[in-house]
Amino acid sequence: MNAHDELFIRWIAALEARHLAALTFSQVSRALRALSSTYVERRQKLAGGAALSGAGKRAAFALFYGPLHHMLVTHIVETLPAARRSISTLLDLGCGTGASGVAWARSCEKPPRVIGIDRHPWAVGEAARTYRAFGMAATLRQGDIATANLPKGPAAILAAFTLNELADPAREALLAHLVSRASHGDRVLILEPLAGFVARWWNRWRDAFESAGGCADEWRLRTELPPIVAKLDRAAGLDHREITGRSLWLGGSA
Ligand SMILES: C[S@@+](CC[C@H](N)C(=O)[O-])C[C@H]1O[C@@H](n2cnc3c(N)ncnc32)[C@H](O)[C@@H]1O
Question: Which domain holds residue 81?
Answer without folding.
Answer: 6-250
